[in-house]
Amino acid sequence: MYTILLGDDNQLTVSVEERIMQQSKLVDNLxxxxxxxxxxxxxxxxxxxxxxxxPVSKRYKSEILSLSDxxxxxxxxxxxxxxxxxxxxxxxxxxxxxxxxVEMEADGTGIKRVRHTQATNIRVLPISAWxxxxxxxxxxxxxxxxxxxxxxTNQLVEANQNLASSKADGLLYNEGRLQLKAGDKAxxxxxxxxxxxxxxxxxxxxxxxx
Length: 210
What we know:
By secondary structure, the chain is mainly β. The chain has helices at 84-87, 141-166; strands at 2-6, 12-16, 20-21, 29-34, 37-38, 41-42, 47-53, 61-67, 76-81, 91-104, 110-116, 120-125, 170-174, 177-182, 185-194, 204-206.
């Protein structure tokens, strides 16, 4: 389990690092451990938002993290499965947490509390990294061939998992918009469906009833 600790200094520190491969889906978990009290504030009463930037597209994304029912070794525990949203791009995914809490005093005055953390990186390895494994020349010829074969097998297995998690297996239709889907996730471009009396714009399909 890939584990990140948050202390009183607002630094996110990776304490347990695992090998996360590109396009991994619902196999590994991202695990945050947070000190339960910060500057006399009970952090269990805050909403925890994980914000992250993929290494290539740099498109801002976020996830609300759910607090586990029981503490983990005296720490607040938040878990998030590594889905293809996090592992779609190989490289360093920049991650930070933001905590929010809104309270109201007896006189109706609203108090907004916000805590930000420093960012840390989660390394996502490309599937092709298996190809970079070169057998030690000191090994026997048979050992070298076996290691090369094992690396190739692992690469093919992960490539197959990647294909299974991203191939289209159906269609989504909502309010005149048609899109491919893989599992529950929409993929590809959206196509706008218009009626036969409209002039189709770019990216639309004219529907003719008969």
